[in-house]
Amino acid sequence: MTISTNTFETHLREIAVETERLLSSLLEGEALAGEIARPRHLLAAMRHAVLNGGKRLRPFLVTSSAALFGGDGEAALRVGAALECLHCYSLVHDDLPAMDNDDMRRGQPTVHIAYDEATAILAGDSLLTYAFDIIVAPETALPDHAKTELVLALARAAGLGGMAGGQALDLAAENHRPDEAGIVTLQAMKTGALLRFACEAGAILSGASDTDRRQIRRFGEVTGRAFQIADDLLDLTADAATMGKATGKDAARGKATLASLKGQAWAEAELERLVSEAEALLAPYGARAAMLIEAARFVANRKS
Amino acid sequence: MTISTNTFETHLREIAVETERLLSSLLEGEALAGEIARPRHLLAAMRHAVLNGGKRLRPFLVTSSAALFGGDGEAALRVGAALECLHCYSLVHDDLPAMDNDDMRRGQPTVHIAYDEATAILAGDSLLTYAFDIIVAPETALPDHAKTELVLALARAAGLGGMAGGQALDLAAENHRPDEAGIVTLQAMKTGALLRFACEAGAILSGASDTDRRQIRRFGEVTGRAFQIADDLLDLTADAATMGKATGKDAARGKATLASLKGQAWAEAELERLVSEAEALLAPYGARAAMLIEAARFVANRKS
Asked: Which keywords does this Swiss-Prot/TrEMBL entry list (chains A, B) (predicted)?
């Protein structure tokens, strides 16, 4: 079930390139059909938000899950691009002064710095809206029932009970520190829900069985937990290196994480445990699941 | 083809009551299915944004259009409620300090005043997301192809090429005054697109013919133009009464409107012309279209 790290990283980069190309074409004026003019300024802000050279981990999970279940590769790429638009909307809004107030992202000014706050709000709104457009557009070659299932699953992963709700809990956590269970819930919503959707989306668009969908959802949940703990660990250790003490950006903002509560050793052991759990969940699929398992390992071990 | 104003206003109020009841139930914690906790604070902000005693004109257009084409009344109410969530999201974001910076709406503090700015951003995001959830949810008894068509039409009415794009053009208009054609385009996007969608949605969910869809779309466009000119006129005359001179809030913000450019007499004549056009468009449907025609009259003549 193992493939080489090289094979995995090559494939991750290939999907990133294809996703970037598709996103760029989806965000050209011409591609946005409609009989009324489109504001160039807003479109430019959306491109700034999306075409940022990201790793495109979520699209990779969609396409790898679709490959496992025999789904159409082109449709998977489009669903991945839709998900990336939605992910990028959340970054634009999270970066706003009223939220996390971040000026830089990936070495570039954030959208409200490069443009202005009103444009950043509208660019986020438009990207969120466009994600649903891309999924149901005629160019996405999927049956209508798959499209409606994808829209429902994405709306639930992104809305009040998912990512947006998790961000609200995260902001509240600066004043009322949540306990361990509270942190787990918050993180499952804020970052876990979209990663789980990415995995499940591949199964939905492939018409996979309910059993397969449940299994890949659980894989997505486990991968999401690993993603978050790796993130917490990076925050803890990266800042420890630069600041010379064991406090990170999260701690500075008064945000407790599992890694900060339970320590670096616990976090490292938990990451190993989660990777094993991810492997066990996909064991029934044998070698065909190798790419997804590498993705879980990559998420757990990433250094940026 | 005429019905009494009383009949129309009674029906408008009935639909508003039913819509309000449905929205309240859709925005209860219990109704938002999902295995993870929902943040009460955010849900309360969403309720504040939506349950505000509005006229529910857009849901009324959806249900009246569905009635004309023989669509299911319950499904039409749900689509109307989804559209109202989306309309209310746009009001919450438009009211933000970075946008129109309004503290009050319908005699109540706006969401960022009653809660805070971050919560208002997230409440808007969540309402936008929830609109798509409601349309595709299993409880909305429509075939999958109608659901995907509704999602696509709504996403295009709301996104870069529609409402959000129109708001971007409107903000830009404060610095670069658009000419008459520019104002028409801006308003068709900012307020017209959702009103057109409301009319078209009734046809889509009823499985109406392409010819019927085109006709009701045009009716929606004409009604949208009447809505905007009536709005401009109210801004012009309401402020003229209170301020003792012929300048309104739009003028104070440096925003040109058709009514301010061409004068009150032109605007009043244009409203009459648009109502006649709306009547002519629905003449082929005879008495069954009476409620929609009254809606166009109401929009053109409204005093608030």
From this structure: Isoprene biosynthesis, Magnesium, Metal-binding, Transferase
Q: Give the pLDDT confidence score for residue B5 in this predicted structure.
A: 75
Report the number of distinct structural domains present in chain A. 1
Give A149's contacts in chain B (Cβ within 8 Å): 136
pLDDT digits (tens, 9 = 90+) for B55-113: 999 999 999 999 999 999 999 999 999 999 999 999 999 999 999 999 999 999 999 99
User: Structure tokens of A147?
Assistant: 């499209």
Q: Is the pLDDT of residue A69 over 50?
A: yes
Matching residue, tokens 């950006």: A249
From chain A, the residues in CB contact with B130 under 8 A are 155, 159-160
Q: Which amino acid is at B292?
A: L
- Per the prediction, chain B carries an average pLDDT of 91
Domain that holds residue A17: 5-301
Nearest to A41 among B116, B172, B189 (CB): B172
- The structure tokens listed for B291 are 């409620």
- What mean pLDDT value characterizes chain A? 91
CATH number of the structural domain spanning residue A245: 1.10.600.10
Q: What is the ipTM of this complex?
A: 0.95
The closest alpha carbon to B167, from B192, B145, B141, belongs to: B192
Residue A171's closest chain B neighbor by CA?
B118
Instruction: Tell me the chain A residues in contact with residue B118 when contact means C-beta distances shorter than 8 Å.
Output: 96, 98-99, 168, 171
Among A121, A133, A162, the residue with its CB nearest the CB of B155 is: A133
B255: contact with A, CB 8 A cutoff: no
